[in-house]
Specification:
This protein is α/β, with parallel strands linked by helices and 191 residues long. The chain has one domain: 3-Layer(aba) Sandwich (Rossmann fold), CATH 3.40.50.620. 51% of the residues lie in helices and 12% in strands. It contains 6 helices and 5 strands; from the N terminus they run H-E-H-E-H-E-H-E-H-E-H. Strands 3-2-1-4-5 form a 5-stranded parallel beta sheet, sandwiched between helices. Strand 4, helix 5 and strand 5 form a beta-alpha-beta unit. The chain starts with a helix and ends with a helix.
Length: 191
């Protein structure tokens, strides 16, 4: 009987850990007004931009910041994101661009100067749900404790925090994000 209870307890702990990983990767902060909405490019960039635009139109912040470089030569992701936002009714002068970032660390590092230049002290950070924790860690590291970061994920067409383990690609993506977060905790701690 003890062994059965022990196995059941272990099963509950393992199941809780598996489900908990998805919720850990996708922290969400209650929305409140901010100085800017920062949208970083990556997986399902259009959904991220649309979420940022929706928040902009709902008056959560007066500015949109688009961050992301081009994959190849040509238009940067930030420029493509701006074009989409303008098409969705955001005025051109309400969008700031950071066009050099090639990864999440770069998004945070390169956006820092733009935010400082415009005296932005609070942001709503938008990315995909599986990427939210890692984006937050990078932005927190580079923006420091004085900038308020409000986590708000865009919808994702397929990844679910309460079902990521069901598909092979989602398991790989989730485990990759957890590995990257572990790596950051070591690197940033050493700085």
């Amino acid at each position: 009987m003890k062994y059965l209870i022990g196995l059941l307890g272990a099963g509950v702990i393992i199941a809780g850990g598996i489900v908990g990983c998805g919720f850990y990767l996708s922290p969400q902060t209650p929305l409140r007004p901010a100085d800017a909405i920062v949208v970083i490019s990556g997986g399902e960039t259009d959904l991220r931009v649309k979420e940022g635009v929706q928040l902009f139109h709902a008056d959560w912040a007066p500015l949109l910041v688009m961050s992301g470089a081009a994959r190849d030569e040509g238009e940067s992701n930030a420029e493509a994101m701006k074009r989409l936002a303008i098409g969705l009714g955001v005025p051109d002068d309400k969008i700031l661009l950071e066009k050099e970032a090639r990864n999440t660390l770069d998004n945070a590092k390169r956006t820092r100067d733009l935010l400082s230049e415009h005296q932005i002290e609070s942001i709503i950070l938008i990315t995909s749900p599986y990427h939210q924790r890692r984006a937050y860690i990078n932005f927190r590291h580079y923006l420091g404790p004085t900038v308020t970061i409000i986590n708000h994920s865009a919808a994702d067409s397929a990844w679910r925090k309460n079902g990521w383990w069901r598909e092979s690609w989602a398991r790989q993506l989730t485990l990759s994000e957890l590995q990257k977060i572990l790596y950051l905790s070591v690197v940033f701690k050493g700085e």
